[in-house]
Input
Amino acid sequence: MPMIRDQHRTAVQASIDVVAAVRPEHLTLDTPCAGWNLADLLTHMTAQHHGFAAAARGGGADLSAWRTEPFADAVAADPAGTYAAAAHAVLAAFAADGIDEAPFALPEFGPGVSVPGSTAMGFHFVDYVVHGWDVAATLRTPYTLPPDVLAAALPIVMTVPDGEFRDADNSPFARALSLDDTDDDLARILRHLGRNPEYC
Output
């Protein structure tokens, strides 16, 4: 996988910036993630940052590192601050020397699953390109990422398989939507991962 450290940092920082506009009264808004309001989404995003940070430090096999429950109350009280702290924690963890080759345990992908850090960063990168858009779409605010970030994310996204498994309740993505001839890179990313770019 090509080096994406800079693009990953930019995408996570963009998510911090968009979440900075979230206020407690926004937390009941529906999001593009079916069945989740904004509180659910931000709690998931916060927990995933902590889980990936734990994996970077060698503790990803512990399922408790990935639990959402510990963050629900903090997100409700201070959504922007809680999220930003988690995002900065994962960025610091991914900045460690040798992280690209380090083994990351990712139990959410199955028992005993471990991948190199560079692959884990790719998974995390795609999630936060898309989740940043999810938050912006929920708030009806603009969301832009630099062309190099989208160009780096697109080929990773297009390797994500589509199929019936995406219909499952625990699938992270809905079925891919048909591409439009006018789609830019962000729209192509969103459609392949089951999002409608016109949601907002």
